[in-house]
Amino acid sequence: MVSNLTKLGVFGITVLAALCLTEPASAHHGWGGYSVELNESMTVTEVRWINPHDIVIAKDASGKEWRLLLAPPLRNRRFGFGPGTIEVGDVVQILGAAHASRAEAKVHVITRKDEEVYRYYYDSGLDSQERIGGTVQQPRNNK
Questions:
Q1: Is the pLDDT of residue 36 over 70?
Q2: What's the number of domains the chain is made of?
């Protein structure tokens, strides 16, 4: 006869194993929902140098606030993007892929005063468009 303590232990191990198997799938949101082309001039209102992604909060010309997702901090620093690169009050041109249902975007390129200051790079060194076989177009100037 199996004791209640043994049953509880087996149940606990089963639940723990199930959680371990599902965690990697939910650990990263993926970029699948980011499919609407975004090419906008925005004013930076906040910069968050944090994991898992550096984040820029900015407002477009209509006053709509955007959450702009960049690459992970260590990768950004490796490719020369970090504190001091852009600051609150900067007017920047954003080229990226917006989420279909919220004011959030994966940023491909940021330019300021016609100078590229950010490009989304993967660890391999490919940028976000080269990785999928495309090319990053130059942002339009919406002055």
A1: yes
A2: 1
111-121 confidence digits (pLDDT tens): 999 999 999 98
DSSP string, 30-81: -STTEEEEEEEEEEEEEEE--SS--EEEEEETT--EEEEE-S-HHHHHHTT-
Return the H-helix or E-strand segment holding 7.
helix 4-27
Task: Determine the Cα angle at 84 with ends 80 and 90, to 5°.
Answer: 110
DSSP 8-state symbol, 114 = T
**Six-digit token pair at 20?**
């371990």
Indicate which CATH number applies to the domain containing 101.
Answer: 2.40.50.140
Give the model confidence (pLDDT) of 96-108 as tens digits.
999 999 999 999 9
Tokens coding 37: 């082309």
Asked whether the bond before 52 is cis by omega within 30 degrees of 0, the reply is yes
Q: What is the residue range of 64's domain?
A: 34-132
Asked if residue 142 lies in contact with residue 93, where contact means CB atoms within 8 angstroms, the answer is: yes
Helix (H) or strand (E) holding 9: helix 4-27
Q: Quick check: is 13 in a domain?
A: no
